[in-house]
From TrEMBL:
CDD domains: LuxR_C_like. Coiled coil: none annotated. It comes from Pseudomonas cucumis. Residues 169-234 form the HTH luxR-type domain. This is LuxR family transcriptional regulator. Keywords: DNA-binding, Transcription, Transcription regulation.
Length: 238
């Protein structure tokens, strides 16, 4: 099983590739041979904005994305509305498309495992899914019950450490102009487009133009999502 000293290693790593390598090693120590870590900036942001790290078969990952399985996967919907772990069972797949999804997942031996929802303090949402190593000698259900407390601890350390790493990486990639920073700062303060145009002495159209650029840089669809992203990257303070 895992000890605190092993979990804390995740918080000491600054490189995402090395971080995932360590996460994989720790999950393997718990008896889970494959994993998927997925995290997006906010609950309302599109799934395509998520950072996904996984050692699932590449062919399955491509099929999953090409067929937009995230829209019907009950594991995904559960993770966005609950904090409770979800043990993989056939009973959670009910609709026709879900059963088709289950059949295809079974061809990659992705039927037994556990998913741990993740919800960050600044609105981040995602999951840590751990696929049970079927070569393990213990019973599947028994194994999950014994390892679940350790898996939850692993999830918590993984979430907090990943948020820090991703924030640093994103901050180095995203640059807002001085005017864009002013616009989003005043928007975070609750000001409307018209009020911001008065404060900054520019046109209504100019404010909309800056917001379009901000949303494009952050890869989000709304001002609210852009504000959350700016706070997460520490570009502005709430």
């Amino acid at each position: 099983m895992l000890f605190f000293e092993e979990l804390i290693k995740l918080s000491e790593i600054s490189n995402l590739e090395e971080w995932f390598k360590t996460l994989k090693q720790l999950s393997e120590k718990l008896g889970y041979s494959q994993l998927l870590f997925g995290l997006k900036p906010g609950l309302d942001t599109h799934n395509k904005s998520a950072t996904i790290l996984s050692n699932y078969p590449e062919k399955w990952r491509k099929t999953y994305d090409d067929k937009n399985y995230a829209d019907i996967d009950p594991v995904v919907s559960h993770s966005f509305k609950s904090n409770l772990p979800l043990i993989w069972k056939e009973e959670i797949y009910t609709g026709t498309r879900e059963l088709e999804f289950l059949e295809e997942a079974s061809s990659y031996d992705l039927l037994q495992g556990v998913t741990l929802p993740m919800h960050g303090s600044q609105g981040q949402a995602g999951m840590l899914s751990l696929k049970w190593d079927s070569t393990h000698k213990t019973d599947y259900q028994e194994h999950v019950q014994v390892t679940l407390p350790y898996a939850i601890a692993l999830r918590d350390f993984a979430l907090e450490s990943a948020i820090g790493i991703l924030a640093k990486e994103n901050q180095s990639k995203i640059h807002l102009t001085k005017r864009e920073l002013e616009v989003i700062k005043w928007s975070a303060a609750g000001k409307t487009t018209w009020e911001i145009s008065i404060i900054l002495a520019c046109s209504y159209a100019a404010i909309d133009f800056h917001f379009r650029n901000i949303r494009k840089k952050f890869k989000v669809n709304t001002r609210r999502q852009a504000i959350i992203k700016a706070i997460q990257l520490k570009l502005i303070t709430p």
